[in-house]
Amino acid sequence: MSEESVSKPLDIIRNMKGVVNAFYLDKTILGQMREEEDKVKAMGNITVHNEGFSEALIRDHVIAIIKDPRFRPPPEPTVVLVSNAGEIMGLEVFPFTAKEYLNKEGVVWLSDAFVLFPEVKGMGGERFIMPPVSFPELNESNGCKDVVSCSPAPTCDLLMRTYYKLKDDPKLASVLVGYNDI
Fold first, then answer.
1. What is the pLDDT of residues 95-145, one digit of tens each?
2. Ordered strands of the 108-111 beta sheet
């Protein structure tokens, strides 16, 4: 692992609008966060599987980003409600994707940022999936491959901030970016 292979991606992220702090996570905190992430449940005791987090953990490097509201939105949904048969029952929407669902039949707005598809029935065993999300700023042109990003659970975010002695500011959120060296 060369110095450039770790400094260039970190520099790219640190120069993004809305990034307050960015740093590499060490194996100790990643292990603690994995244990905490395994305990997460949603309302109604629905299972939450953070696939993005699981994918980030098997990468060569994981960068934590502490961001403010100026940070760009994710390029695709970060939360999907899936039936026990694997069908999408609902998903996160953004201001730039909301128009796809505004006047669509068979869509129920749960909030300004989440829609449900009531025609898709669950039979128990429904779960929230937090899929790996692309992070186009890191790519092969800057020495990164297999790039994924994710949002850690709020309890993992707090665990990480405590471990690194960072202020717990509710106006800030975190994103993790995992990548492999080329």
1. 888 999 998 888 999 999 999 999 998 888 889 999 999 999 999 999 999
2. 47-49, 127-129, 80-82, 88-92, 114-116, 108-111
Q: Count other C-beta atoms under 10 Å from residue 59's C-beta.
A: 19
Residue 149: partners with Cβ closer than 8 Å, 6 or more residues away = 52, 56, 74, 132, 133, 134, 135, 175, 176, 177, 178
**Residue-wise pLDDT tens digits, 143-181:** 999 999 999 999 999 999 999 999 989 999 999 999 999
pLDDT reading at 1 higher than 60 = no
Strand 47-49 versus strand 127-129 pairing type:
parallel
Q: What angle do CA 34, 37, 43 make, to 5 degrees?
A: 175
Sign of CA pseudo-dihedral 99, 101, 104, 110: negative
**Are the C-beta atoms of 67 and 151 separated by less than 8 Å?**
no
